[in-house]
């Protein structure tokens, strides 16, 4: 396992008390393209961690690694996870008991995640039997019914086929099915992206409810949508070109970004607020680097308006493990706000 | 809608019903709207509200069950010459990945406009259309779709639409599949076109943030009907309809 990456230096040496997940040195690649490069992160019990970034930054790959669903052409090169005190070295084959029970994946497209020819109740029976052996059908269905009641969802979905449910309801059903076994950690990969705002809000409330009631221990929520993260996440980690460039409590990161990429991402968000109508929003010039051949030093350097010669060296992580940004400018200007400088 | 000036493109009481009898769905139900030069009109609404059906009616890809379509005040609802219509009204769709023939270079894709333009399609005109959307013709003409980024592809699609110099552009969720950072650049292409060429643009989106950024006028659709319409500042910052208020309340905000 590599230890020279900046994020790893700051990661707590041992899984601190109260941490649900401690992940260290995560590396995963598609052939020569290293899409997740030495990523370390922690999720506290009862916490929602948001992972933000553009397409191609490696956030979905990270979700696959964390949920133990990586399959060729994606290979996990290394790293280890500690979830609720249980340790797992990712270099080996993940044990089947972890998937669905310890970590569970909530995938993006609700329409594709459900079998079109099975009733929701049948799928619940399959999920329960796959993990708990020969459980009577009625026991599995009771489990589903209790969970639907607890979350104020209608019991009628048990007998329904996916096509009889709306898109938003399908996504909520997938959420219920993927958390049926009370996983300690739920990995949600762009769960709200295909939904309109009203169903998006309902799903966010459902996820907060699951964490609030302790049905799941914590959530890693991956999305490109920063306003959604503002609503759902306690902390945010911003990913760029396979690495985490900034992390911090949600409000602190949104209100005072410390990495130029975070600031640029935030300034290209379009929300229905009066200031959006008055100024021209520039977007971020250029494109993310080719991960098969990333630039040396800071990977955001070619697109950054604050870049200097120093940025060709690996940037230091400035701050503490809970609130840091990997940036030379931030190290040299600790008390200056970023936005006016961009 | 009775105003002094004749709108460029107008729909009057447009209705489209799918199915029949008990299964009939009124996807678009008595919708009237007017597009004027140099104006961006946005239709917002959730999935299934009839936004895309409305776009297809305005593009004459679907025939309305009832209502009329007027171009420069002329009734074009049932005229047979769609080729002439498409010289004036062009479209950009949601998915910049599937809208391309994978085996065509950008040059060949653009050359397909010959069906509408004939000998008027010159290299200079192709170059001009690409430059209008901020692409360097030399960079992209020889490339295949997989060699372009998502933002570049969507800009090529806009350039393709602009090639015939339409007076109306219909953009149906044209930015929904792009990252926030690219989205802003595509929306800026649209606002620049509005200012420079006086194009009338109909922008269709479920994202109220984008509607707020680009539009002059906003129509809010729900279950096939327009529930509220007016200047952007009024609809978004002082909505009067209950549904618009609820929709706005559900939009996640960045601060506070």
Automatic annotation (TrEMBL), chain A:
PROSITE patterns: ABC_TRANSPORTER_2. InterPro entries: AAA+_ATPase, ABC_transporter-like_ATP-bd, Oligopep_ABC_C, P-loop_NTPase. Keywords: ATP-binding, Nucleotide-binding, Transport. The keyword Transport applies. One of its GO terms (molecular function) is ATP hydrolysis activity. It comes from the Bacteria. GO terms for biological process: peptide transport. Residues 21-266 form the ABC transporter domain. Pfam families: ABC_tran, oligo_HPY. This is Peptide ABC transporter ATP-binding protein.
TrEMBL record, chain B:
Pfam families: ABC_tran. It comes from the Bacteria. Residues 9-248 form the ABC transporter domain. PROSITE patterns: ABC_TRANSPORTER_1, ABC_TRANSPORTER_2. SMART domains: AAA. Keywords: ATP-binding, Nucleotide-binding. InterPro entries: AAA+_ATPase, ABC_transporter-like_ATP-bd, ABC_transporter-like_CS, P-loop_NTPase. One of its GO terms (molecular function) is ATP hydrolysis activity. PANTHER family: ABC-TYPE DIPEPTIDE/OLIGOPEPTIDE TRANSPORT SYSTEM, ATPASE COMPONENT, ABC-TYPE DIPEPTIDE_OLIGOPEPTIDE TRANSPORT SYSTEM, ATPASE COMPONENT. This is Dipeptide/oligopeptide/nickel ABC transporter ATP-binding protein.
